[in-house]
Amino acid sequence: MTPAELEAASARAFEAEYGGRAEVAARAPGRVELLGNHTDYNGGLVMAAAVDRYTAVVGRARPGREGRVYAANFEGSARFPLAEIERGPVGTWPNYVKGVVWALQEALGAELTGGFETAIAGEVPLGAGLSSSASLQAAVAFFLLEAGLAPGKTATQHIGGDSDAALMDLAMVLRRSENEFVGVSSGLLDQFSSLFGREDHALFLDCQSLEFARVPLGSPGPAIVVCDSKTSRKLADGMYNRRFAECNAVVDHFKAKKGEDAVRLLRDVSLAELEAAWDELDPTCRKRARHVLTENDRVRQGVAALRIGDLKRFGALISASHASSRDDFENSSPALDALVEVAEGAPGFLGAKLSGAGWAGCTVNLVEPDKAEEFAEAVRHGYFRLRGVAPDVHVCRAADGASARPLDA
Ligand code: GLA
Q1: pLDDT digits (tens, 9 = 90+) for 258-313
Q2: Could you tell me which residues are beta bridge partners of residue 46?
Q3: What is the pLDDT of residue 5?
Q4: Cα dihedral across residues 84, 88, 90, 94: positive or negative
Q5: Which is nearest to 118 in space by CA: 18, 223, 251, 266?
Q6: Is residue 207 in contact with ligand 1, taking CB distance under 6 Å?
């Protein structure tokens, strides 16, 4: 679907649900994680790209103090008061929308100036590691700002779109919404990527210093092929937060050894220190930490490789990342491993890894630009042969981040 078709689908849903026309349209992309798996909440390094698969939100302000949302994908709706927003059952989509309103209001220190009604349509596969949730958050936030519901300095800057400092503020607001309202201990990767995306660029972020860069993918850049294993999981299902706790157990060990101020996050521990303390550490937790610290290193090397256009090296780092996730972080699955294995033998293959939280969903593949279709065909057949399921294969492009605009009357 083109972004225009997606927007039209949400506009039709809006008219059917509320009557009358939507006045504002916003959209935000999903993302792939290229390197830096589970490094973000450890204060580490990540490399990602926003991809040209979007969530669209259209709507208008309305009198009263209530938010209304209709989600075309689920044929479901939600209404909630702007004051004292309550979280719904764990793992349900309205929490993401309510959470954005909650966190924006917290950041503004005031309620939105009025109510709103919106319709949402999305094409980012759900629960698949492409961060449909961050694209929903970013699109909702851009809708609210463009509709003038969160006035003041912050809002105008965000919508200006050219102030990266303001965009970073917004990314943090959205992360807070996911951490404190939705209840997932995630890092900044997803929200950052959906907001900062740029066409034909990869994104680098140091999650501790918040230093970032948009790194050109080259011309012609590699194809980014997303393969969906057709298995899914919910981020709030507990495994993610368990990994968070396992990483923090290692942090606690080093805090006790080196002092609270010296070690705040896993980022503050070096690989050499981890190896030296290996026998003192819990056998599961130390593997988790080794994954995170070696990932940071792969990100550093990946940025350097991309800057000199060494796609073979960049691809090899991506594949090494998958092996580390599989063996040390143990967040892969037989389905994801099978997809990676099939990809390795396909034409144009440069590298493949799971994307995002893991355990199910998608792999991200770096492929020689002129081989993307052949590659996709080979993966479709190979995966079907191994698992008896046809994967969805999406040939993607690195895309611009979230945007919003008024619709013509
Ligand atoms: C999910 C989270 C991100 C990040 C990745 C793993 O996508 O939302 O913050 O932790 O998993 O790298």
Answers
A1: 999 999 999 999 999 999 999 999 999 999 999 999 999 999 999 999 999 999 99
A2: 205
A3: 94
A4: negative
A5: 18
A6: no
Closest-lying ligand 1 atom to the alpha carbon of residue 240:
11
Q: Which of 131, 190, 332 to mutate to test the pocket of ligand 1 (most atoms within 8 A of CB)?
A: 190
Q: How far apart are CA 42 and CA 83, in angstroms?
A: 33
* Bridge partners, residue 349, by sequence: 367
User: How close is the Cα of 189 to the center of ligand 1, in Å?
Assistant: 6
CA distances from 392 to 259, 315, 323, 372 (A): 49, 21, 23, 14
Largest CA distance in the chain: 68
Tell me if residue 162 is catalytic.
no
Residue 33 CB less than 6 A away from ligand 1: yes
Ligand 1 midpoint to CA 39 (Å): 8
Q: CA 266 to CA 249: how far, in whole Å?
A: 10
Q: Tell me what pLDDT residue 236 has.
A: 43
Q: Work out the burial of residue 157: count CB atoms within 10 Å of its CB; fewer than 13 is exposed, 13-18 middle, 19 or more buried.
A: middle
Helical spans, DSSP H, in 329-396: 334-344, 372-387
- The 3-state DSSP class for residue 21 equals coil
Pocket test for ligand 1, best of 126, 132, 189, 240 (most atoms within 8 A of CB): 189
The residues facing 226 across adjacent strands are 364, 394
Which residue out of 40, 52, 162, 190 is catalytically annotated? 190
184 Cα nearest atom in ligand 1: 8
Please name each of the domains of the chain with its CATH number: 3-216 (3.30.230.10)
Which residues of the chain fall short of a pLDDT of 50? 236
Give kind and range of the element (H or E) at residue 226. strand 223-228
Does the beta carbon of 364 lie inside 6 Å of ligand 1?
no
